[in-house]
Amino acid sequence: MPSANVNNHGPSELLSRLASADPEVKVRALREVKNQIIGNRTKKLSFLKLGTVPAITAILADSTNVNNCNSNTINNILVQSAAVLGSFACGFDAGVQAVLDAGAFPHLLRLLENSNQKVVDAGARALRMIYQSRLGPKYDFLQQKNMEFLISLLNSQNENVSGLGASIITHSCETSLEQKALFDAGILRNLKSLLEGGSLSQRDASLESLSTIFKNNPEVISKFYGPEIGRPLSSVIDLAKDRYPRTRLLACMCLIVIRNTSPHFLQDLGIKTKLIHILLELLDDPGQVGDEAPFAFSSLIAQKEDLQKLALEANAIDKLHHHLQKGSLHPRRYEGILLALADMCSKLESCRSKFLSLKVLNLVTDALTDDSTDVRIAACICLKSVTRSIKNLSAGYFMNEIIVIPLVQLFLDPSTSVQVAALGAISNIVVDFTTRKSIFVQCGGMKLLVQLAKSMEPVVRSNALWALKNFVFLADNRLKENVFSEITASLLSSLICDPEPSVQEQALALVRNLVDGCLKSIEFVFAEDGLILEAIGRQLRSASKAEIGIQGMYALCNVVSGNEFHKEAVMHQLFPLTDDKNQSFVIKFLQSNDNRLCVATVWTIVNLTCPSSRGASDRLEKLCNAGIVSQMKNMVNDPCVDVKVIIFLF
After folding, report:
1. Tens-place pLDDT, residues 109-160
2. Region 25-49 average pLDDT
3. Are 376 and 413 in contact (CB under 8 A)?
């Protein structure tokens, strides 16, 4: 076999060759750097550390300023310099940052004005690589000169130049004002031309740009449907059936954006069914299209029972399960499939039943220990959806070591996002209506929840308290005592007064569930000289959100269901004698626009004045003096039925 005559110089030697005064040596060095770094992140890093990108940027700048722009050698240097910079930027954020830091961006833009089309093409390619990254410079569409330049790009006969224009839109268009500016400038007509008469690359770029301009903007979508642009929607629908998988995916994503933004469009059952089938077929693609297809599928069916039902009929869960069974999935695809299953099981019991009958749960549980953070999060989200099943929770289906232990281990995950996702899943599971909650205690789950309630991250504290709240829901008093001894009155009272409203709400909700039940449970709020009851009173007097008032009033409502001592203690919190200016907060709650807060407050007052209570008449007199009774009488014809029914009991 003949040996290949190929130069393969090291990075340091190539860097010195780039500094050569001989243009031919420089061109060969540029070409060799490009060949070495294409698709090789390790090589890219090696060259970055040596400062190769600034050196190539200097070559590009010097060559751009040469007067003899028709020189073949100079043009070769420009083409190769742009190609190398584009290769550094391709799919590699560190490379993009290096290119931008070196000041290469304006020099690449200047290449678009070159008379040599190969130079123009190389510059456009490199710029497209930059704009595929989140680090690409933001383009201001609201400046007239920028809009004119963008239109000139889209009108170019050069495929990469017009594609660059579309990529700039996809990357930079973020606000409704920018979307409107693009529409008013006639950009949709330019994109329509690329969509219907452009190359494969131009069609794909146009579809991505259209999705960006349509997102959350029903006004632009309605105009896109209208006659002034020539009703190009049919072209998008046709492209969903294109022979190329990426084009089909992008067309589906565009149609999904339209439907999610303006639900009254694309109501045809045939189109919805076709979208589901196309996206499920695209899962079979072995490349990036197959990795992205489950995310598009999730976007299509999320929060939509009708589409979830259609997807179930199309055997979506079976197909997603089939792909999970293959194993060794790319992390992106693995994550997407788990999230698609989560959306499939988010609403319909029939979907959850199918999921469980196929034993998909075992594969999802395995994903909890995957190396990828995103996969672990997706697995938790999937479990959270499946465990919304009241029927299976009641049967104790999920409260077992196989599921609970790996979830509890994720409480200690270094990623806060994983911790929060695991807490979300466990919050459903611990609602378990059977007597098997001891499993969670035995594996250390309860103690870890209390530890997480002390986290520096508010979202972790809030979710840990949410899980504890669900854990003690309808629990026996022995389990409640275990939880209370672990969390203590001092910690719980401090969480009720936490700086974060979401933490306050969940801490009050935990107290509400703790004191719901027997008289012995009510005593929790009187521990340590009534720390918790005092904290509840303080928060109600300064509640920043209706939800805090709701949970606090229900907690007090449960306390006043106890004996005379309990009722009088609550009266003291509602109407403190030493703080007249705050006595009106109860009336404010009764006058709230939030019916839930009104209902909670009315229930508390009704329980305080129960005729069978020894001190009911005295409390009623205090309520009269505070203006509560007259306010209640004004609510007899309240528009909220629940309020009227409860006041009838007053």
Report:
1. 999 999 899 999 999 999 999 999 999 999 998 999 999 999 999 999 899 9
2. 92
3. yes
Distance CA 373, CA 381 (A): 13
Between the CA of residue 245 and those of 90, 193, 616, 646, what are the distances in Å?
A: 21, 21, 74, 60
Comparison of pLDDT for 72 and 638, the residue scoring more: 72
Q: Residue range 65-70: average pLDDT? A: 59
Q: Phi/psi of residue 157, each to 5°?
A: -80, -15
Residue 21 CB-density burial (10 A; 0-12 exposed, 13-18 middle, 19+ buried): exposed
Give the Cα-Cα-Cα angle 121, 124, 130 (nearest 5 degrees): 145
Query: Which carries the bigger pLDDT value, residue 518 or residue 450?
Result: 450
Average of per-residue pLDDT across 484-495: 96
* Cβ pair 448, 486 in contact under 8 A: no
- On whether the CB atoms of residues 139 and 171 are closer than 8 A, the answer is yes
**Does residue 196 register a pLDDT over 50?**
yes
Q: Which two tokens stand for residue 490?
A: 């001092």
C-alpha angle 186-188-190 in degrees, rounded to nearest 5:
80
List pLDDT tens digits, range 299-354. Answer: 999 999 999 999 999 999 999 999 999 988 999 999 999 999 999 999 999 999 99
Tokens (6 digits) for 132? 């595929």
Tokens of 628: 């509560």
Evaluate if residue 7 carries a pLDDT over 80. Answer: no
* Mean pLDDT (the chain, rounded): 91
Q: Examine the pLDDT at 230 and tell me if it is beyond 70.
A: no
pLDDT at position 582 is 47
Given CA atoms 290, 294, 299, 304 in this order, what sign does their dihedral have?
positive
The CA dihedral of 530, 534, 540, 543, to the nearest 10 degrees, is -120
Between CA 419 and CA 410 the distance in angstroms is 6
φ/ψ of residue 526, rounded to 5: -100, 0
Q: Where are the alpha helices (DSSP H) in 575-627?
A: 585-590, 595-608, 616-625
Residue with the two structure tokens 């930027």: 89
Tokens of 289: 């299209």
Distance CA 449, CA 430 (A): 12
d(CA 376, CA 311): 25
Rg of the chain in Å (alpha carbons): 32
What is this structure's pTM?
A: 0.88
Above 60 in pLDDT, residue 580? Answer: no
* 304-312: long-range contacts, CB 8 A cutoff, minimum separation 24: 305/347, 305/348, 306/272, 307/272, 307/276, 308/343, 308/344, 308/346, 308/347, 308/348, 308/351, 309/348, 309/350, 310/272, 310/273, 310/276, 311/276, 311/280, 311/344, 312/344, 312/348, 312/350, 312/351, 312/354
CA distance 37 to 15: 14
**Residue recorded with tokens 């303080």:** 538
Alpha-carbon distance 388 to 316, whole Å? 20
Evaluate whether 623 touches 629 at the Cβ level (below 8 Å).
yes
Separation CA 276–CA 260 (nearest Å): 14
Cα separation, 503 vs 488, in Å, equals 16
